[in-house]
Specification:
three-stranded antiparallel beta sheet; alpha+beta; 6 strands; NE0471 N-terminal domain-like
Protein backbone atom coordinates (compact mmCIF):
# COMPACT_ATOMS: atom_id res chain seq x y z
CA UNK A 1 0.00 0.00 0.00
CA UNK A 2 1.27 3.42 -0.92
CA UNK A 3 1.61 5.81 2.02
CA UNK A 4 0.19 9.19 1.01
CA UNK A 5 0.69 11.10 4.27
CA UNK A 6 2.37 10.40 7.59
CA UNK A 7 0.25 11.73 10.45
CA UNK A 8 2.51 11.97 13.50
CA UNK A 9 0.14 13.50 16.03
CA UNK A 10 -3.03 15.45 16.71
CA UNK A 11 -3.79 17.72 19.66
CA UNK A 12 -6.57 20.17 20.47
CA UNK A 13 -6.75 23.54 22.15
CA UNK A 14 -10.13 25.23 22.32
CA UNK A 15 -11.43 25.59 18.77
CA UNK A 16 -8.11 24.67 17.19
CA UNK A 17 -6.72 21.33 16.13
CA UNK A 18 -2.97 20.99 15.56
CA UNK A 19 -1.82 18.18 13.32
CA UNK A 20 1.73 17.13 12.67
CA UNK A 21 1.71 15.63 9.19
CA UNK A 22 4.59 14.93 6.81
CA UNK A 23 6.97 16.67 9.22
CA UNK A 24 4.95 19.93 9.29
CA UNK A 25 2.53 21.24 11.85
CA UNK A 26 -0.73 22.71 10.63
CA UNK A 27 -3.40 24.49 12.65
CA UNK A 28 -7.04 23.86 11.76
CA UNK A 29 -9.88 26.12 12.87
CA UNK A 30 -12.64 23.71 13.90
CA UNK A 31 -15.36 26.37 13.63
CA UNK A 32 -14.82 26.23 9.86
CA UNK A 33 -13.84 22.58 9.49
CA UNK A 34 -15.81 20.32 11.83
CA UNK A 35 -18.67 21.25 14.13
CA UNK A 36 -18.64 17.67 15.47
CA UNK A 37 -15.03 17.93 16.62
CA UNK A 38 -15.64 21.44 17.93
CA UNK A 39 -18.43 20.17 20.21
CA UNK A 40 -16.79 16.82 21.06
CA UNK A 41 -15.47 15.87 24.48
CA UNK A 42 -11.77 15.47 25.17
CA UNK A 43 -12.15 11.68 25.06
CA UNK A 44 -14.03 11.86 21.74
CA UNK A 45 -11.34 14.09 20.22
CA UNK A 46 -8.46 11.93 21.43
CA UNK A 47 -10.00 8.70 20.10
CA UNK A 48 -9.09 8.65 16.41
CA UNK A 49 -7.67 6.34 13.77
CA UNK A 50 -5.48 7.30 10.84
CA UNK A 51 -6.12 5.28 7.69
CA UNK A 52 -3.25 2.94 6.74
CA UNK A 53 -2.37 5.15 3.75
CA UNK A 54 -2.53 8.32 5.85
CA UNK A 55 -5.22 9.69 3.55
CA UNK A 56 -7.90 10.18 6.19
CA UNK A 57 -8.55 10.49 9.92
CA UNK A 58 -11.59 8.90 11.58
CA UNK A 59 -13.08 9.71 14.99
CA UNK A 60 -15.29 6.65 15.71
CA UNK A 61 -17.00 7.97 18.85
CA UNK A 62 -18.53 10.90 16.92
CA UNK A 63 -18.53 9.32 13.44
CA UNK A 64 -16.40 12.07 11.88
CA UNK A 65 -13.98 11.67 8.97
CA UNK A 66 -11.56 14.26 7.62
CA UNK A 67 -9.34 14.06 4.56
CA UNK A 68 -5.71 14.94 5.21
CA UNK A 69 -5.45 16.39 1.69
CA UNK A 70 -8.35 18.74 2.48
CA UNK A 71 -6.76 19.79 5.78
CA UNK A 72 -3.54 20.56 3.89
CA UNK A 73 -5.44 22.48 1.21
CA UNK A 74 -4.53 20.01 -1.54
CA UNK A 75 -7.07 19.82 -4.35
CA UNK A 76 -7.10 17.17 -7.02
CA UNK A 77 -8.52 17.56 -10.49
CA UNK A 78 -10.05 14.65 -12.33
CA UNK A 79 -8.48 13.54 -15.58
CA UNK A 80 -10.72 13.21 -18.64
CA UNK A 81 -10.61 9.39 -18.31
CA UNK A 82 -11.84 9.63 -14.71
CA UNK A 83 -14.71 11.89 -15.79
CA UNK A 84 -15.80 9.38 -18.47
CA UNK A 85 -15.76 6.52 -15.96
CA UNK A 86 -17.98 8.31 -13.42
Amino acid sequence: MKIIHKVQGICFSGSQMRIKVDGKEIVVNLTKTSKRLLKASKKDRETYKVSPSGYGIHWPLIDEDLSVDALLGIKHSLSSSELVNK
